[in-house]
Design goal:
four-stranded antiparallel beta sheet, 44% helix, alpha+beta, 6 strands, two-stranded antiparallel ribbon, elongated
């Protein structure tokens, strides 16, 4: 049976079955993880949770009903409280560091990280090629090239994911130009993971 974990942005809770999750305080913005996901994803991006959200009514905030005639400062304070209660994870999404998992083919990266990866790889290819040509050692060339190419293709796959495409798109001729200069897909997350801007 599939088990789920959820997080409030600071602590993780679980494992839970889908039935047990129905009794937890899960919102569309709650971060969810289960085996098979590379990173935490918001619940609204997971199709299995659509049925749960159909059954959950929006939260009732009694302070708003009781203080309708209050002054503007009070209303502003209530609005802040409402936003925090509806979206407790909004301020807790932690920004991911660049090159946090450079050999993984899962997740998303921004074009800056991909650009730096591309430059580093190009320089290393030139250095390795010139060093090996002087010694004529094909085995050494392969030994050094393999991890470098894994790194470059892993970073390329994550950049394709940021644009909402499969990692296989990077083998399309000239698609690397879109990877270097094109914007990533908007929104907090897509099917490949959380937006690296967040």
């Amino acid at each position: 049976m599939k088990k789920y974990f959820y997080s409030d942005g600071e602590e993780k809770f679980g494992p839970f079955s889908m039935e047990e999750l129905r009794n937890e305080n899960i919102t569309k913005d709650t971060l969810i993880w289960f085996e098979g996901l590379e990173d935490w994803v918001q619940a609204k991006a997971i199709s299995e949770f659509e049925e749960i959200f159909k059954l959950i009514p929006p939260p009732i905030i009694p302070e708003i009903l009781n203080l309708k005639g209050a002054n503007a400062q009070s209303e502003s304070h209530i609005g802040d409280t409402e936003n925090k209660s509806i979206n407790p994870n909004a301020q807790n999404l932690k920004k991911r560091r660049m090159f946090s998992n450079p050999f993984s083919f899962n997740g998303r990266i921004r074009r800056t990280e991909y650009g730096i990866s591309f430059i580093i790889s190009s320089i290393l290819i030139i250095v390795i090629s010139s060093a090996v040509q002087e010694n004529y050692e094909l085995g050494l060339l392969l030994f050094l090239y393999i991890p470098l190419m894994v790194f470059l293709y892993a970073q390329g796959a994550k950049r394709c994911h940021d644009r909402g495409n499969s990692g296989w798109y990077q083998i399309i001729p000239f698609y690397s130009l879109w990877m270097l200069f094109g914007e990533g897909e908007e929104g907090i997350s897509n099917k490949y993971g959380i937006n690296p801007k967040n």
